[in-house]
Design brief:
globular; binds alpha-L-arabinofuranose; eight-stranded parallel β-barrel; alpha/beta; single chain; ten-stranded mixed β-sheet
């Protein structure tokens, strides 16, 4: 029996809604077919944007959507994606085996329309590799300039009189690999130029609440030695001479599953199940390590000389890409297309809980990717739009946005006082007069009983249970069976001796809501 003790008097930080953000890229069929079908399509659309996919995303209320990449950002020229669609140049996309032509019909206006429909804030990644400082300046002017200039008037002629006021600007993507194979020092030099040259638009106007964030390309979370070097040396290089504006660092981490060719997105053994579950936890250590390196780096910045005081250096840690990456996706067409089974749903829940638990260290995180690529929430097949169980996890977890993390511990005979019991993972938060408890049973085959107790004597009354599980851990939703796995109402926990008893199905994710009386 696992005994979990939650202390509603110990609040440990606020969960930033941005931890539930998204990433989309022209890769495989993420954009074309997944999000963009074109106005002429027989598939229902909003001016070309695939209606079912946009509606499904809108229902999730995505806080941020990051675009156009990823690697694609490094060869993307924004001017190709404006103006009359039939006249836009056709370019070629070689990223990650996409090998397709891009007619550039999905450009900045179409992306902003997707953000408008879904209510998301845009995060644009600029082209640091084949672009230029001037091209970036022009893109910012085009998007954010309120005053009449050649570029803001061009935006107006292209249908958007109001500035887009894009707040998040990624300066380069994975500059240690596809983004230039740079050293940390080289990247720091580039970052200095791009950050300093970025137009301010309204962001330094004291009357405007708007502020533009410059996001640096963070480390490769999957390279234990290199990632430490990257962050340490980037900050060291920035510490020499004056610092450009730096608001956040964008760490990427994929839960790679490539060692065993027999293990695919939809076919795995029990060993394969536990391998993928266990390896997703590395991200928690990486977050702690990278947060500490950022603080160490900031503290090494010298004090500014002269009369004008420098602002306190601050840089948030964000995770711009995360998700399961199964080796089988390298062979799939469209490129990097993966199915999502309960194994992916459980790791998606575990990863979101890593962000929740570390809400004081990480401010935003984007799942890679929302549609048709890797750890997707939405898959499309012809005219069908399929919601994966990952989608349900994001939906179930919405309750935690803006809530306060609660202190808890698990006691069980084998794992006395450890933060986890065997294959049971818990997270709890409080918002208003509600307490929400995530219970993940990562045991592939065994149902487990959990006893929940509230330490501070507060009276709580169970209100609802949302649960997701499947007959088989390798089940998934497909065009033939689109609702094979769906979140449903679960059995309410039973009141017992000052606590509540809950039975969690094997390979299941459960969100229990309580009202504080
Ligand atoms: O998400 C797929 C790719 O993974 C992205 O384009 C790149 O940034 C990362 O390596």
């Amino acid at each position: 029996m696992n005994r979990i003790v939650i202390d509603c008097n110990k609040k440990e930080g606020v969960i930033s809604p941005e931890l539930h953000s998204h990433f989309i890229e022209f890769l495989g069929s993420c954009i074309y077919d997944g999000i963009w079908v074109g106005e002429e399509s027989e598939i229902e659309n909003y001016g070309g944007i695939r209606k079912d996919a946009a509606d499904a995303l809108a229902a999730l209320e995505p806080p941020i959507i990051r675009w156009p990449g990823g690697c694609y950002a490094d060869t993307y020229h924004w001017r190709n994606g404006i103006g009359e669609r039939s006249k836009r140049p056709v370019t070629y996309n070689e990223n990650f085996g996409t090998f397709e032509r891009d007619n550039n019909h999905f450009g900045i206006h179409e992306f902003m329309e997707l953000c408008r429909i879904t209510g998301a804030k845009p995060w644009l990644n600029i082209n640091l590799l084949s672009g230029s400082v001037g091209e970036m300046r022009d893109w910012v002017e085009y998007c954010n300039r309120r005053e009449e200039t050649e570029l803001s008037l061009l935006r107006k002629r292209n249908g958007s009189p109001e500035p887009f006021m894009v707040e998040y600007w990624g300066i380069g993507n994975e500059c240690w690999a596809g983004g230039g194979n740079m050293t940390a020092e080289m990247y720091a030099e580039e970052f200095r130029k791009y950050s300093s040259a970025m137009p301010l638009c309204d962001s330094r106007n004291p009357d405007s609440s708007f502020s533009m964030k410059r996001i640096a390309s963070g480390a490769d979370g999957n390279k234990p030695k290199e990632r430490v070097e990257w962050t340490r040396r980037f900050f060291k290089a920035l510490g020499q001479f004056r610092q450009p504006q730096l608001d956040a660092m964008d760490l990427h981490f994929y839960n790679w599953n490539v060692e065993n060719p027999e293990d695919t997105d939809i076919s795995f053994s029990e060993e394969g199940w536990y391998k993928v579950i266990e390896s997703c936890f590395e991200l928690e250590d990486v977050i702690k390590e990278q947060y500490a390196l950022i603080q160490e780096g900031l503290s090494g910045f010298p004090e500014a000389e002269g009369f004008f005081p420098a602002a306190e250096p601050k840089c948030d840690l964000v995770v711009g890409e995360w998700g399961n990456w199964h080796g089988s996706s390298f062979k799939s067409r469209p490129a990097l297309y993966q199915q999502c089974t309960m194994r992916d749903a459980v790791t998606t829940a575990l990863t979101l809980d890593i962000f929740h638990r570390n809400c004081n260290l990480v401010k935003a995180a984007c799942v890679a990717q929302s549609v048709n690529v890797l750890n997707s929430l939405i898959l499309t097949e012809g005219n069908q739009t399929i919601l994966t169980p990952n989608y349900d996890i994001f939906m179930m977890y919405k309750v935690h946005r803006g809530a306060e993390k609660l202190s808890l511990h698990i006691e069980n005979a084998a794992f006395e006082n450890a933060g986890t019991a065997e294959n049971i993972y818990v997270f709890a938060s409080e918002k208003g007069n509600h307490v929400f408890v995530n219970l993940i049973n990562a045991d592939m085959t065994k149902e487990q009983e959990i006893f929940l107790e509230f330490a501070d004597g507060k009276k709580l009354c169970p209100e609802s249970v949302q649960t997701i599980w499947a007959e088989k851990a390798s089940d998934y939703n497909s065009a033939q069976e689109p609702d094979k796995i769906r979140c449903r109402q679960g059995v309410m926990p039973a009141g017992r001796e000052g606590g509540f008893l809950y039975s969690a199905k094997p390979a299941s994710v459960n969100v229990l809501s309580f009202i504080v009386m």
